[in-house]
């Protein structure tokens, strides 16, 4: 879900009832709440139930839209963003591995839940740090990955969703089995599990020759959602109960895809695949929530939001919602954002940072919709209500 939120006048589809945060987020200036402050690190195990306020932990799974640096630690990975001009607007102006000029949507959701930003990347932590951060959250997201294990094979090295779940299970075993087990189960039941994945699977299917995949579009969507369902069930068995699901946006409208069409328009076939996936995933989530005791979910519909901004980009505060701020070639969508790229003067005026990813301001607005948006965009509850 990478479409921005309306900041001023309403689009032609009617006014929306929610309000937007125009100032900074919690922790914007280095404040925020640490894992130790939220639940006392392992101090919560010293006796009695821990006194958590709000969401005690945020666990992040997915692809480059929410990766905060795991791929930095994969020597063979080609899907990296730990070099300028990425991070030019991040505190200190440093690249971190985020595919953004600053923060990404996981960071802004973390802020809205009261954390300083996204939890840290798993691969950056040693075992004592894992034991500490498991009480406040960890990010397992990896750029280039997808729902299917085969997705990302052209990127040299990525952490598949299956491997991300394995790392999460490893995190839970990083302390003595008898220590804190009751409190940990309680924490996991109240934590938010953010899942943002699927676009790379769609791209891979579209770009592959049909003779290599041997699947129709309908069969592919079924395979994709069936695998996603298994991932969700596995997280549930590990203790997850609250799932923040980021649906796919208008994946055919990113600069990389637009640059391939003669008119510079969106690739309708890609958007239709994403729409079918979203509908199938909604059915899976509704079914699972009826069968798995205590499961709650929130689903953000990025396609509806994308259609809203397509009506009138300027009313959302963007001067350009087609061209990337950083890149090369037509629409800055034919080459990646790197040291040789053409970079815009003000990323806040652009919806896209590079050929696939949103700018920090676009990510912040998307996070606000996920967190506090109306039922037509986030349902059956929004991310704020999910945490209640």
Automatic annotation (TrEMBL):
The record's InterPro entries line, in alphabetical order, gives:
GDSL, GDSL_Est/Lipase, SGNH_hydro_sf, SGNH_plant_lipase-like
Q: Which GO terms describe its molecular function?
A: hydrolase activity, acting on ester bonds
SUPFAM superfamilies in UniProt: SGNH hydrolase (SSF52266)
* Location of region: Disordered: 1-35
Spell out the CDD domains in the cross-references: SGNH_plant_lipase_like
- Regions of compositional bias (Polar residues) in chain numbering: 1-13
Q: Cite a single Pfam family from the UniProt record.
A: Lipase_GDSL
Q: Name one GO biological process term.
A: lipid catabolic process
Superkingdom of this protein's organism: Eukaryota
Q: Which UniProt keywords apply?
A: Hydrolase, Lipid degradation, Lipid metabolism
| Compositionally biased intervals (Gly residues) | 24-33
Q: Family, per the entry?
A: Belongs to the 'GDSL' lipolytic enzyme family.
UniProt-recorded name of the protein:
Uncharacterized protein
């Amino acid at each position: 879900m990478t479409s921005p939120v309306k900041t001023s006048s309403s689009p032609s589809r009617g006014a929306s009832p929610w309000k937007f945060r125009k100032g900074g987020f919690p922790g914007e200036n280095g404040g925020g709440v640490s894992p130790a402050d939220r639940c006392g690190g392992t101090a919560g195990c010293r006796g009695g139930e821990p006194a958590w306020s709000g969401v005690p932990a945020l666990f992040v799974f997915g692809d480059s839209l929410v990766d905060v640096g795991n791929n930095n630690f994969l020597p063979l990975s080609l899907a990296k963003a730990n070099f300028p001009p990425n991070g030019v607007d991040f505190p200190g102006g440093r690249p971190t591995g985020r595919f953004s000029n600053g923060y990404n949507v996981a960071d802004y959701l973390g802020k809205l839940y009261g954390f300083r930003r996204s939890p840290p990347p798993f691969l950056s932590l040693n075992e004592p740090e894992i034991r500490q951060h498991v009480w406040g959250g960890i990010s397992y997201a990896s750029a280039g990955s997808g729902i299917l294990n085969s997705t990302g094979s052209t990127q040299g090295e990525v952490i598949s969703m299956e491997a991300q779940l394995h790392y999460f299970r490893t995190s839970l075993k990083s302390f003595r089995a008898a220590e804190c087990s009751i409190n940990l189960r309680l924490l996991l039941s109240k934590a938010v599990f953010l899942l943002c994945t699927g676009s790379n699977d769609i791209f891979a299917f579209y770009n592959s020759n049909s003779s290599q995949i041997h699947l129709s579009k309908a069969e592919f969507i079924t395979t994709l959602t069936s695998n996603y369902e298994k991932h969700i069930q596995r997280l549930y068995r590990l203790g997850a109960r609250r799932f923040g699901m980021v649906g796919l946006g208008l994946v055919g409208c990113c600069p990389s895809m637009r640059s391939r069409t003669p008119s510079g328009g969106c690739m309708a076939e890609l958007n239709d695949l994403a729409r079918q996936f979203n509908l199938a995933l909604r059915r899976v989530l509704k079914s699972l929530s009826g069968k798995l005791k205590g499961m709650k979910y929130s689903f953000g519909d990025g396609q509806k939001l994308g259609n809203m901004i397509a009506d009138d980009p300027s009313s959302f505060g963007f001067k350009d919602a087609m061209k990337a701020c950083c890149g090369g070639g037509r629409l800055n969508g034919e080459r990646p954002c790197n040291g040789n790229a053409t970079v815009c003067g003000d990323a806040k005026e652009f919806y896209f940072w590079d050929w696939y990813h949103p700018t920090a301001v676009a990510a912040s607005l998307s996070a606000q919709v996920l967190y506090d948006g109306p039922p037509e965009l986030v349902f059956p509850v929004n991310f704020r209500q999910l945490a209640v």
